[in-house]
Write a structure and sequence with these properties.
The complex is a heterotetramer of chains A (301), B (189), C (196) and D (368). Chain A has 301 residues and is mostly helical. Chain A is 72% helix and 0% strand. Chain A has one domain. Chain A starts with a helix and ends with a helix. In chain A, 53% of the residues are buried. Chain C has a single domain, classed as Beta Polymerase, domain 2 (2-Layer Sandwich), CATH 3.30.460. Chain C is built from five helices and five strands, in the order αββαβββααα. Chain C has a five-stranded mixed β-sheet with strand order 1-2-5-4-3, with helices on one face. In chain C, β3 (55-64) and β4 form a beta hairpin. By secondary structure, chain D is an alpha+beta fold. Chain D starts with a strand and ends with a helix. Classes of the chains: A mainly alpha (301), B alpha/beta (189), C alpha+beta (196), D alpha+beta (368). Chain B binds chain C through residues 79-80, 83, 106-108, 112-120, 123, 173, 176-180, 183-184, and chain C through 135-137, 139-140, 143, 148, 150-151, 153-154, 157-161.
Chain lengths: 301, 189, 196, 368
């Protein structure tokens, strides 16, 4: 049992390191889109360790406990994440609903500590984060349930294996509408540009993270990196057929994240009501039609 | 051949070593507070964007004082802004640095005889780096930041420690110039 | 636009035959200024507004400290007949009171508030001309008056940077004028081909 | 819902400049808002009375930092009106080139500034990169990137350097070739479009009530009210250009007018470069030592069409070596200070930051 736990912590650490380097490289890619040289590739590491080296003010114990709970919850979720079909910490515990449930623990921790900070901008940011989460969860859930219905198992590595066995026929291609809904809700999950209303610096001064400085902000950055790792690798496993070996996983991971970053660098930011209206219009319709086609008519490419 | 004697590191040696490692990270990822207090702030957009790209030095604009390391006092400082500046400076998390842009922060510049502009910035908050010039060029601003990195490396950028040690002196100066540091309008009960 | 010279004539005889003008100056084809009594200002401004001068461009005061008077300036502009009209009136300096023109030009609310803050002119009729607008906790006389010295205020309140007087006294040195001329001839000689 | 008091305060990434907007917010809708000016007050008009006429040239451009040339132009025109002085023909054309280059630089900055509240940072980076080329051209002409002190009473400080036309032409052609790309990136971008249509509306009667001028007025009143057309100064009457107007003024139309003005300014600069005669560029405004130049007594108001509206200097001289009183009529005074109480209530919290860029407010102008 101890070995699995150690292995899980290793997976979480690997996720953090992988995502931070990929984010650093992406900052250079986005910089090139904006006609400039980006920072060093390991700039994200420097930022996080600089934040951890600074003293910070605290606003009461809920403010600090919330951050610890958020980071703990997210690391706990990341421990279950399968890297490749055989490289997984807890053999048959990598169920999809575990991830959905445990991510909520992390988000709740951050929301609690942000509203504990007493800054009105932070509470507005938290309200917006939860509404955006509500918005993108519904279509994403419908598509994932269709996938579970098709593959028969709800374990993430099982779904990945199903796609590999079916002649590497990824769900991204097999369920085209579902793939598009998956990309859109992934952008909502990561808070990429069109749906970045809850960290909108120009309106509510970087939303929930207004009152964080120093160590708390460093822990929140680590939590953010691991959350991105969870969400992007979930997308890779569900829609891009997982990976036989680590190298293929890293390549797929890098391609998905960079594509999202480039798309988001040429988009403005929606207002919060436009985000919800958008998600409940096109992605919902696509998800429902995809579910109907895939389950009842059985047309799967 | 001299054998290197292994000396037991005392408590403050270890702290100093950790502090130097922290300095390396603080030096390479300085975050600048997005607060244009005066007219030299017009040289910041070219510095931040593709023309001179501060992000190569690891620097970027940050929205709130809590997250920022550098407080940029860009240009002249009128009394009203000085009150808000003191609020902002005290909100920033330690170790924080102040960069004074323009000659108006050094000796009042072109507004030395004005009734609303202070003449010397480091009477009110500790300043680590001054960049002279009435509208210093963007290269001069970037050069000022590189000088600040050098100061951090050689552990001379400790204005924030100075603010703790001589707090009464600073508070007395602030009270003398501003008359009353607290802001009284219906928003600041 | 081209017939702007008679725009000025049009407006000047329009105003002259219905108001007592103390002084009229035509600056150039686009600007004319009238000095009127304090009581006529309101009616003249509303008269101009009905004739098309709908935009209040500027409102401020000038402190004539020698003859102990404040001079209030109202500049209105008409975009169809481009003529700037300055309406100026003199008011007493010791107890400066001038009725606000808020009903005529609502845009003058903050101009008057600023004039009160910098000159101390009272504008009854403007609801909040007493409130502070630009200066905060100002404890001295209104700053734009001529007898306020900002330099003294600045020296008294804000510490100046002391520069040490470390300069080298160069008086009484041997003048280097001769060497400079010698050098110049040398340069000219070398330039037109002579040997160094 | 209890009303919450919020700042779009002096320290806020959305606020370009340094003024504090106090908002009473109910949910996300702004109920009441007003501007607290004065953060950048430095006793400017008092300072101008203490400087002599020629000495003021160094102080004048520092009123508004984003566009310093219109101050120099208004001051120079005012002094020349008092002196009844005729400046050489070439100086007129050089002045027009400098003013139009300044208009291009501030329109690019405002268009790029649209990127930060709407989250489109790529637009901000591209626009500031182009603006930097203009600043480099200014550095070649006048010696300083931002404060030029180049347009002086009596003409222009010195002639254009050799070969500057090549730089200006190459910059204009480059900007014109990428104009469509700018439109697609910014105003035709679906997310930015969704953000800026039907927000911060400016009806025509508010324009007349507050005295809003410039793009705000032209996009609301649907008439070509541009000082360069209505009251042509400095040979604008010999240059063909048209003025973009629109009937309904919301954030999108104003940004659209700004972009069309960029195209017009490019045309103006090209015509000026072509029509520029040879000759000297400066006429001394007095005899003897420049610190003792005097200007005959008189009251004059000289106005210039800045990118934000009518920008005027009210100069009073009593015949001495110092101006007796100089009043600065900032173009963003009506639309900044007065306008915010009219068109912000009712919009959402996210649009408050849009107000600064589309309305073109420069806060040092409000509190001088």
């Amino acid at each position: 049992m101890i070995l699995n736990i150690l292995f899980g912590v290793g997976v979480a650490f690997f996720g953090f390191v992988l995502q931070t380097t990929v984010a650093g490289v992406n900052r250079k890619v986005v910089a090139r889109v904006q006609k400039r040289y980006g920072p060093k590739w390991y700039q994200e590491f420097l930022d996080i360790f600089k934040l951890l080296s600074k003293r910070a003010t605290t606003h009461g114990w809920i403010f600090d406990f919330g951050v610890i709970m958020a980071l703990g919850g997210i690391i706990g979720t990341a421990m279950f994440m399968p890297i490749t079909s055989d490289l997984v910490a807890f053999e048959n515990f990598d169920n999809f609903f575990i991830f959905v449930y445990l991510i909520a623990v992390g988000m709740l921790g951050m929301a609690m500590s942000a509203s504990g900070s007493g800054n009105p901008l932070a509470s507005i940011g938290v309200m917006r984060a939860l509404t955006t989460m509500l918005a993108y969860e519904v279509p994403f859930m419908i598509v994932v349930i269709t996938i579970i219905k098709l593959t028969g198992t709800s374990s993430v590595s099982g779904i990945a294996e199903f796609q590999q066995l079916a002649g590497n026929n990824w769900f991204m291609i097999a369920l085209p509408l579902g793939g598009i809904v998956g990309v859109m809700s992934l952008m909502g999950m990561l808070g990429k540009k069109p749906f970045e209303t809850y960290i909108a610096p120009a309106e509510i001064a970087s939303g929930p993270m207004v009152e964080y400085g120093g160590k708390q902000l460093g822990m929140l950055f680590i939590m953010h990196e691991i959350t991105v790792f969870i969400e992007v690798s979930l997308f890779v496993h569900l829609f891009l057929g997982g990976a036989e070996n680590i190298l293929l996983f890293i390549v797929k991971y890098f391609l998905v994240y960079t594509a999202l970053n480039i798309i988001s660098s040429v988009y403005g930011r929606f207002k919060i009501d436009q985000v919800v209206l958008f998600f409940y219009k096109w992605p919902l319709i696509m998800a429902v039609t995809q579910a109907f086609i895939a389950i009842y008519l059985g047309w799967v490419i | 051949m001299l054998s290197t004697k292994f000396t037991v590191m005392t408590k403050e040696d270890v702290d100093r070593k950790w502090w130097e490692i922290g300095d390396f990270f603080r030096r390479n990822s300085l975050w600048m507070l997005m607060y244009c207090t005066g007219c030299c702030a017009i040289e910041l957009p070219p510095a931040m964007t593709s023309a001179y790209d501060m992000e190569r030095l690891g620097m970027g604009p940050m929205a709130t004082p809590r997250q920022a390391d550098i407080l940029l006092v860009s240009g002249y400082l009128s009394l009203k802004t000085l009150r808000r500046l003191i609020y902002t400076y005290e909100q920033m998390s330690e170790p924080k640095y102040v960069v004074g842009l323009g000659s108006c922060t050094i000796n009042g510049g072109i507004y030395h005889d004005s009734h609303a502009v202070i003449n010397q910035l480091n009477q009110y908050i500790p300043v680590d780096v001054y960049v002279a010039g009435c509208m210093p060029n963007t290269e001069a601003v970037m050069n000022g930041f590189v000088d600040l990195m050098g100061l951090i490396k050689t552990k001379k950028a400790n204005g924030w420690k100075d603010y703790h040690e001589r707090n009464e002196w600073y508070k007395a100066n602030q009270k003398f110039a501003l008359g009353e540091v607290k802001i009284h309008d219906e928003f600041h009960e | 636009m081209t017939n702007s010279m008679n725009n000025v004539e049009f407006i000047s005889n329009l105003v002259e035959n219905s108001y007592k003008i103390v002084k009229k100056e035509v600056v150039d084809q686009y600007q004319v200024s009238f000095v009127v009594e304090k009581e006529d200002v309101h009616s003249l401004l509303s008269f101009l507004k009905t004739n098309g001068w709908k935009q209040l461009s500027y409102l401020s005061a000038i402190d004539w400290i020698d003859d102990n008077k404040f001079e209030l300036v109202y500049i209105v502009f008409n975009w169809d007949k481009p003529v700037y009209i300055q309406i100026r009136t003199l008011i007493d300096r010791d107890n400066p009171v001038m009725n606000s023109i808020l009903p005529v030009f609502p845009g003058c609310k903050y101009y008057e508030r600023e004039a009160h803050e910098f000159f101390g002119i009272k504008f009854p009729g403007n609801p909040d001309f007493e409130k502070q607008l630009i200066l905060e906790n100002w404890d001295d006389m209104p700053p734009l008056r001529k007898d306020f010295d900002p330099r003294a205020y600045s020296d008294s309140k804000f510490a100046k940077r002391e520069y040490t007087e470390d300069f080298v006294n160069l008086n009484g040195q041997k003048s280097k004028q001769k060497e400079r001329e010698l050098q110049k001839e040398n340069i000219i000689k070398v330039r037109n081909g002579g040997k160094k | 819902m209890k009303e919450m008091k919020l700042f779009l305060g002096p320290q806020h990434p959305g606020m370009h400049g340094n003024a504090s907007v106090h908002m009473y917010v109910d949910g996300d809708i702004i109920k009441k808002s007003f501007l607290l000016p004065g953060m950048l007050h430095r006793g400017f008009e008092k300072g101008m009375e203490r400087h002599s006429w020629i000495n003021n040239i160094s102080l004048i451009p520092r009123v508004c930092v984003v566009e310093p040339d219109i101050n120099e132009m208004a001051f120079a025109m005012g002094v020349e009106k008092l002196l009844h002085l005729e400046i050489p023909e070439r100086a007129h054309y050089i002045r027009m080139i400098i003013l139009e280059l300044a208009r291009l630089s501030i329109h690019l900055m405002a268009y790029g500034g649209l990127g930060s509240p709407t989250g489109l940072y790529t637009l901000m980076y591209h626009a500031h990169a182009d603006r930097n080329t203009i600043l480099n051209i200014f550095e070649k002409i006048t010696g300083h990137r931002v404060y030029h002190m180049y347009i002086v009473p009596g003409g222009v400080r010195k002639d254009l350097p050799q070969g500057i036309e090549k730089d200006i032409h190459s910059f204009l052609d480059d900007l014109e070739s990428r104009y469509e790309e700018y439109r697609d990136l910014g105003i035709n971008n679906p997310t930015v479009l969704a953000r800026i249509t039907d927000t911060i509306m400016l009806p025509a009667e508010v324009v007349w009530e507050l005295g809003v001028t410039g793009i705000g007025m032209r996009s609301a009143v649907n008439k070509a009210y541009d000082l360069r057309k209505v009251m042509p100064y400095a040979r604008y009457d010999q240059i063909e250009f048209d003025v973009p107007i629109a009937g309904y003024s919301d954030a999108k139309t104003r940004v659209d007018c700004k972009l069309q003005e960029v195209v017009q300014s490019i045309g103006i600069i090209r015509q000026c470069l072509a029509k520029m005669p040879e000759g000297d560029v400066k006429v001394p405004i007095g005899r003897g030592q420049s610190m003792r130049w005097t200007v005959p007594s008189g009251h004059v108001y000289s106005a210039v069409e800045s990118s934000r509206g009518e920008f005027g200097y009210y100069i009073v001289s009593d015949g001495g070596t110092h101006p007796y009183r100089i009043g600065v009529r900032g173009a963003s005074y009506p639309q900044g200070l007065l306008g915010i109480e009219k068109y912000l209530p009712g919009t959402r919290l996210d649009d408050a930051a849009l107000w600064v860029d589309t309305m073109g407010v420069c806060s040092p102008e409000i509190d001088r």
